[in-house]
Each structure stands twice: as structure tokens, then as C-alpha cells.
Design goal:
The structure holds 2 protein chains of 2 kinds. By secondary structure, chain A is mainly beta. In chain A, 0% of the residues lie in helices and 57% in strands. In chain B, strands 2, 4, 5, 6, 9, 10 and 11 form a 7-stranded mixed sheet that branches. In chain B, strands 1-3-8-7 form a 4-stranded antiparallel sheet, with no helix packed on it. Classes of the chains: A mainly beta, B mainly beta.
């Protein structure tokens, strides 16, 4: 079966750095997405990785290792507004997105 | 309209009733999707459409139907609602056949009693 694993909840301090991990086992791989979802709102796109390595976009970076079936989202200089759920999703061989359950990130002052 | 809109925002429905959730996008995206999101679970694909006139079944299609008469609209119908269909429903669209980033509507919160 297809499976996306990510921690259920993480807590971090304002101004700090946090790394959210995602491991996956899917039938084929055509890219990995990270989305941010604030409570009661729709998911919004953060990043897309299809090649191994690190993609940096401002305070957010996303890393992919296809051989290990592993990705992480790195958030720097955390702000209170970063409190949200972070969703990992993999595009499988049928070009369908398989979603993880999401990681709820709590930022404390 | 800018992006994707969904209607209604929320709805309480008696079991056995028929309900259509509406979704409209103005980005001329080819592909559209319907997901449900339940607490503790990832987004689950109900139905999708790669282009106007075609539809396909996702992971959890039972009890739901869709149509894609044109590029902009992708309604989701519950023929006879059951309490297990209580969920938040998101419509999304993407520019290609699933290879591009998906953009989401604001969601419909549906409660079936």
C-alpha cells in the first residue's frame, strides 16, 4: 500500500528553527509537495521537489532524498503566524497526490 | 471571481437527503479534484477530472458523483447523504494532468445528521 508518515504534532519557540520530516512509500514518484494549512482554512502551496537536494524559498526550505524516500521542511526564524499544519504529499505513478495526515506545528513565544 | 470558489461554506443536512456542493474556478485549469478531510487523516481524493468531459474515481468515491460539463465547474453530488459523509470538502484545480501544483478552494463544512 501507499503510505506517507509525518509526526502528528511538534512544538517550537518563536525565532527558532524547526524541521518537519516526511517519509513515504508510494507506487512510483513524480514529485513531493509541502502545503501549509491554517486551522479552518484551505491548504496553500509551499514547495515542490522532484530532484534530490535542497530547495530554498525565503525562511522555508525543503529537502528531498528519493533513494531514502525522505523529505523535510525546514522553517527558520519562526513567527507566531507559522502556527499551522504542514502537509506532505507525493505525486504517485498515476499522477495522483497521496497525502500525509499533516503535522500540527505549535509556536510558543 | 478570483481562483476557486466553493458553495455553500457550511451545511447541515438530514441523512437521506440529496446535496450538491458547488465548485467554480476561473484559472482555466484543466484538472479539478474533490477531497474530503477528516480529523487525523490526510486529504482523501473522492473524484477527479483531468479535462472537461472526463471524470475519474479517487480513493473514496462511494456515495458521491461528479460531472464536468465545462472547464470552470465541477459539482460534487451526494445522492443520499449518510452521517459518515460528515467532513470538510475541498475542491482543487491544477493546470496540467496532475503534474502541476494544486490550488484549493476555501472548503465546505458538511454535517449529516
Amino acid at each position: 500500500g501507499q503510505n506517507i508518515d509525518q509526526p502528528t504534532e511538534m512544538t517550537a519557540t518563536e525565532g527558532a528553527i524547526v524541521q518537519i520530516n516526511c517519509t513515504y512509500q508510494t507506487s512510483g514518484f513524480n514529485g513531493l509537495f509541502w502545503y501549509q494549512q491554517h486551522a479552518g482554512e484551505a491548504p496553500t502551496f509551499l514547495s515542490y521537489n522532484v530532484l534530490d537536494g535542497l530547495e530554498e524559498k525565503g525562511r522555508f526550505s525543503s529537502f528531498l532524498s528519493r533513494s531514502k524516500g525522505y523529505s523535510y521542511l525546514l522553517l527558520k526564524e519562526l513567527q507566531m503566524k507559522d502556527s499551522a499544519s504542514y502537509l506532505c504529499a507525493v505525486l504517485d505513478s498515476n499522477y495522483q497526490l497521496i497525502w500525509g495526515a499533516g503535522t500540527k506545528l505549535i509556536i510558543k513565544p | 471571481i478570483a481562483g476557486i470558489t466553493q458553495a455553500p461554506t457550511s451545511q447541515i443536512l438530514a441523512a437521506g437527503r440529496r446535496m450538491t456542493l458547488r465548485c467554480t474556478q476561473d484559472m482555466r485549469h484543466n484538472a479539478m479534484y474533490w477531497y474530503r478531510q477528516d480529523l487525523g487523516l490526510g486529504l482523501r481524493l473522492i473524484h477527479y477530472s483531468n479535462t472537461a468531459g472526463t471524470t475519474g474515481k479517487g480513493e473514496v468515491p462511494d456515495g458521491y458523483s461528479v460531472s464536468r460539463a465545462n472547464t470552470d465547474d465541477f459539482p460534487l453530488t451526494l445522492a443520499s447523504a449518510v452521517p459518515s459523509q460528515t467532513s470538510v470538502y475541498f475542491c482543487a484545480s491544477s493546470g496540467g494532468e496532475g503534474t502541476d501544483t494544486q490550488y484549493f478552494g476555501p472548503g465546505t463544512r458538511l454535517t449529516v445528521l
